[in-house]
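Researcher: For the record, we're logging two predictions in this thread. I'll number them. Prediction 1 follows.
Model: Prediction 1, sequence and structure:
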Amino acid sequence: MNGKIVAGGIVLIGAIAGVAMYWLQVYAFYEEAAFVPGEEIRLTLIEAVRRSRSSPKG
């Protein structure tokens, strides 16, 4: 009987932790992002950054 109580406690703690992690990731951590035209994120290749840093300035 004690094994069932311990196993039930472990499952209950795991379920609570899972629900808490889901809530934190979906609702608490992220904030709504508003789209503003002209303020988009632009990606730059690492090679382009390396080339611009190593090129002589003049």
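Researcher: Logged. Prediction 2.
Model: Prediction 2, sequence and structure:
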Amino acid sequence: MPSPATHLRAPLLWLLLPLMAGLTAAKLWPPPVFGLLPLILAAGGLAFAAGWRALQDGRFSRLV
């Protein structure tokens, strides 16, 4: 019988690889000239909009 841990290994690697790539890129490239605040605000706004849309009943709610 296969180990249940083998089923978790692949999804965890798919989460670990982009994280490690992001950390490597953060060490190699300096932050933009205009600072990180506009990027943080844009990411927060998009996350809020995505969460809001996920809770709405609508045309796309039946797809998932």
